[in-house]
Amino acid sequence: MTRQSVRYLVIGAGIHGLSTAWHLARRLESTGRGSGADVLVIDKGKIGAGASGVACGVIRNNYFQPAMRELMAHSVDVWDSDPEAFAYHPVGYLQIAPEEMRADVGQIYAEQAAIGYESELVDGADASRVYLTDMFPDWQAPGSSVVLHEKRGGYANNRASLHGLAAKALALGVTIRTGVQVTGVTVEGGAVTAVRTDAGDVACEQLVVAVGPWVRDIWAMLDLPSRIPVTTPDGTVHADTPMWTYWALQEGTLGVDPQTFTDSRGELPPVVHIDSSAPLYDDMDGTLVTDRMWGVYYKPDFSFGGVQGGASPVRLDRPAGDVAVDPYGPASPEFVVGDDFVRMWTSALAHCHKRFEGQRTLYKDEPSGGIGAFTPDSFPVFDTFRQNAYVIADSNHGYKMIGVGALVADEILGTPRTLLEPFRFSRYETGRLHPTSHSPFPWS
Ligand SMILES: Cc1cc2nc3c(=O)[nH]c(=O)nc-3n(C[C@H](O)[C@H](O)[C@H](O)COP(=O)(O)OP(=O)(O)OC[C@H]3O[C@@H](n4cnc5c(N)ncnc54)[C@H](O)[C@@H]3O)c2cc1C
């Protein structure tokens, strides 16, 4: 690539980069302010080389934080706009929770009703058991106090949806260039004027940074701080907080025929997410796996070839600067799931459904998992830095957030979006952080 110049340069061909490029092209064309030819996406790998390409693909609204729920509702509208192109399966989503989370889940339901997001609340242990055994005759997990059944959402096939997005962008004239790595950023007069790549410089008027787990590196190229002061809502200042912390996502596939995981109607069930404080025992040898609160999620998935899902992520106990992001995902020798995950996750499946008892030998013994870069409060940062560098740092919430690119495109073209306001970087200074829940997951 010889030196070139483009108005809108997007780094990263994952869910956010592709969605932003597509929506920018649409807005430019519809307003007569330009066209897709003004947008270039570059990626050091290929489409879906990062987290979006390995994501489980679960799409839910179930968040304790009102701002997250409103944002997810907007993204589900985008998924619903073209399920075929996005390989989206709108089967719905179940959150099954213990007594400790009952009030949180009830609050989520009430607030979903207030924003018109269709869901059903099943409150109380007896009612929950009846609801779940009606849905799954082999349901056997004890100790659930509440079920939230989201009637929208579900899951999508990771790479297929990215290619669907890319096709929409390409059809509007966007250029996607793969195998080009950004190695530096040129800032002049306080603004980004160009990025340096291993294939030459690219001058731009507006930069969009959508690099998922690699955000640490572009953040540093923008000369932004690796440690920041963070004010909590009670006014306490944590002076020297790491901007990025890596967590390893734990996911895998039980190699059963996905068609056999149906509900009592014989249809594909909602995505199941269960959090539980009941002791979890190994279904093969009866030993205790954990007596602390645990959580898993799973769904029948034809592209993964089985029942696919995961458990709580594991925080990497080292500074972000010491984490090798490459090689990424299943190619990483370090960050793929191990035997502990397989034991825990398959035991949890058996804890929930009789049909999964004694099935561990069918677990697909192939590398899986991936790491994510989390922000200081584990919620996204969507903001402009250096005057014209829009950073989309989703703190690993983001495959489901296909609509964020639409909002970012609006902001870049001059229309601020209130849905993104709660995710500004300034919240770390003002202390306007998001509320936290009782979930064992850092992202709920
Ligand atoms: C195992 C796993 C499962 C997950 N499951 C879910 C889920 O079920 N639901 C959900 O909502 N979220 C899920 N997530 C989180 C979600 O995948 C991410 O939040 C989201 O995909 C991030 O998208 P992105 O576009 O920001 O980045 P990515 O998809 O990571 O894309 C970034 C791209 O930037 C490119 N890039 C990086 N650095 C450079 C550079 N210097 N120059 C050029 N290109 C560069 C990379 O090659 C990559 O293609 C999961 C994450 C993991 C790891």
List keywords for this structure.
2 domains; FAD/NAD(P)-binding domain; alpha+beta; 444 residues; eight-stranded mixed beta sheet; D-Amino Acid Oxidase, Chain A, domain 2; binds flavin-adenine dinucleotide; 9 helices
Compact description:
With 444 residues, the chain is of the alpha+beta class. 24% of the residues lie in helices and 29% in strands.
Quick one: CATH superfamily of the largest domain?
FAD/NAD(P)-binding domain
- CATH topology description of the largest domain: FAD/NAD(P)-binding domain
- In DSSP terms, counting alpha (H) and pi (I) runs of 4 or more, how many helices? 9
- What small-molecule ligands were found? flavin-adenine dinucleotide
Query: How big a fraction of the residues is strand?
Result: 25-35%
Q: How confident overall, as mean pLDDT?
A: 96
The dominant shape is globular
**DSSP, total strands:** 23
Rg on CA atoms, Å:
22 Å
Question: Into which percent range does the helicity of residues fall?
Answer: 10-25%
Number of structural domains: 2
Decide which structural class fits the backbone: alpha+beta
For the largest beta-sheet, the strand count, sense and barrel status come to: 8 strands, mixed
